[in-house]
Here is the input.
Amino acid sequence: MALLAAEVISNACKHAFPGERRGHITVNVRQADRALTLTISDDGVGLPDGVLVGPGTGMGQRLISNFAQQLSGTAHFSGGEGTTFELTIPIPASLH
Here is the structure.
């Protein structure tokens, strides 16, 4: 999960705040039911129109998709004002 979070944060630093633009990145982890949800949001420029959200062709998107798959999780990005990434992974029954 740490490697996935680092990749998402790295992508936000590279793409959300072009030029001298400043902003914030928020990281939140919460447990609900039998799952953990990692949410990483930025208040940057958001996703450009026409950008595919989900497993893409870029190296970062492939890494994120592979890490989520290794964790048996579901991941998605959403746009709007800024960008939000959310990963939900099940907590194994042996840890309940």
Q: What stands out?
A: The mean pLDDT is 87. The longest strand covers residues 25-32. The helical segments are 2-15, 59-70. The CA atoms of residues 34 and 61 lie 26 Å apart.
